Amino acid sequence: MHRLMLATAALGFALAPAAIGIDDGDGAAGVSGGGNGREGRAERPLVPERTTAYRAKKLVLGDGRVIDDGVVLVEEGVIRRAGSGLEIPAGAGVVEHDGTLSPGLIALHSYEGGGADLFDATRAVMETADVSLAFDPASGDFARALASGVTAIVLAPTPASLCPGTTAVVKTAGGTVVKKDAQLALGLGAAALKPNEFPTGYAAALAELEGRFADPKGNFGKAASGNLPVLIQAGTRHEIQRALAFARRFQLRGALLGSTWAEDLVEAIEGSGLSVVCGPVDPGGDAREARSIAALSKAGVRLGFALDAPARHPDSLRFAVALAVRAGMDAGAGLKALTGDAAAIAGVAGRIGRIEPGLDADLVLWSGDPADLGSAVVAVYVDGKLVHGGTE
Amino acid sequence: MILHLVTPLLFFVSSGGEAVVDSQSLTVYADVVYTSTGERIENGGVTVSDGRIRAVGAMRAPKDALHVAAITAGMIDLSGHVTTGGSVEESREVTPEIRVAGTLDPFSISWARQLRSGVTTVLVSPDDRNVIGGLAVALKTGGEKSIEARTVKADAALRGAFGSEPSRGNHPAYGRPTDFYSRRPTTRMGVEWEWRKAMYDAVAASKDPARTFPGSDELMRALKGELVVVAQAWATQDIRTAIFLVEEMAQQVEGGVRLVLDAGAETWKEPDLLKRSKAAVILPPFAHAGRTTDGAFMAWNVARRLQDLGVTIALSSHDALDDGARLAMQGAYARRGGLTLDEALAAVTINPARMIGIDDRVGSIEIGKDGDLCLWSGEPFQATSRVVGVVLDGELVVDPRAAE
After folding, report:
1. Percent of residues, chain B, with pLDDT higher than 70
2. Which of A88, A168, A374, B194 would staple A53 via disulfide (CB 3.0–4.6 Å)?
3. Is the CB of A241 less than 8 angstroms away from the CB of B106?
């Protein structure tokens, strides 16, 4: 049986709010405008410096590596050191468990706290629509995500128009915005076409976006100059081909969203340098999707997974990976897609996604290998604070 | 499965007397090779390699060679609508700048259906839900799964429609709740008005850059005759409208529209006007009761009558899903109505190629042209003959032996 042992030292866990979503003050001010660096984060409240050591049988680092007897030293919500068999400083709080510790999972495309309010197809192009201002940080969706080990999501406008807006990276503990304007969402799929208003056809849709990028202004300018990654929704194969050609033409970097049909275009996608946000993948769905993910992974394409909660349970994120692994994806690559690679796609690799000194201590303690669906979430820590599970 | 037939170190003498040696070539032999240049070669063969026709002429077939009853050039269908459903921009009625190529799905199974029926090149146009729908593209029906790679000619024609189709479903803004289809045109007169307005606006834009609008350049190119106009017009009144409009515009712009009437079922009713217009005609699939779209009547002998008038004709299948309506059968129906074999062959090969200016690459069996061949089980356009094999860009993509 898995057992959580909390050997709290002098100051103990009394400092850490155990309840979910409680903001200790840095949350509201914690928006990072700069992206990758830690600069721009608000100063933390003055508390006595103390170290918490997390020790687990296995440590999933988020970059593909897994180490035994892992120890992570965290100070003030930031990872200071991590490694195998590190010496735990005297006076440190210790969290010890015979399970696996991993970075918090990152869902790349979801609607927690926003839901249907993020679906606005009344205008074909809304490039300045900002989801970071349109969600409820107190929504119960976030607690549900934390319970599944999901510590950050890319909140996205529904890709039902040519350009529905920009995405934002949000922590599920307290709804802290890690990065606003993370990606410029573009829709080149059938969902962006309308039966009864512009655009009804692909050609005019494409022409409209080409026009926006021919003399790019605002967020289109940022995307064209490579300062704002794009997230291009493309469903079927011809839509993916169109998206690839479009990205190539305007030298856009970023990711494709949707991978059901990607298996026939692996080479082209790999050559494009674009990443792919896969799924959500549901059991009993099109088998081609899981095969496509496995093929993309084998070809070396950087992958992450969409969640689309609250319509889907946050557990389906790990389920999607399991289905891809079942179709041939390497399980380690699957975990990387939920952590380090997801952070890289969202443009927050300097903040979250891996267990590495300097990054936020967003950690999930699992009863076993997180790629194994039999493993359960034991405890979730965000910025070094227990936000789900565990025992006092 | 693509099969490369390797014929190492064999020498063939082409009709031009040119010897061809190629270790990666494919030679198909036939009782008769119909070249679409008026020539019939008995006991002949065609050699293709690197995508092109390298030799054609009388050849003795070696043992176990690929041999069929007849070989023709790959067929060309100018009425291809192998579209995705997103081919029309219905938020406007006139969209000359829209390229249908940007809406197509190279992975669609419809292409293979066309290819297997012997059609190797199609002109794909936007569906006729707009008055002027946009720019059509000439494509191969097989090969690499990319529209770019399959393109024979981009912007091969400007597509539009007369008649009831562009106004179908539209209704005036009064009398019922306003919706997307409270739009122009609602009548034939409205369709004609939209055509004329677009053309006059383009002329005005050519004189005053401030009046430029999306598609004005494409319309001017069409008015000058630089871009072929393929306009759907089934019934007499629509054929008259198209020709009168073109004649009117010829007074405005030097050059004049090069008009191809698509689905010109009732072109036979206006022989003098048709002759005067020099328009070419794409005939729709023959209908058993004679009645086609828009109430237009097409008799079995329409092809014969147009041929006698000296009108350039092409047959088409309109992407018939029914095997009995495919292009090979259209040739058979046209023969039943009096067309000769060579005339029917021209109407599905070299004539359509010339109409849209791709005859330098496809439409006949000549050295240097694309290696697109149609292999037949018997004399072409007989009811008892089938297309049993297809060579596309020099590769045997439908092997007649596979079915044996």
Report:
1. 90
2. A88
3. yes
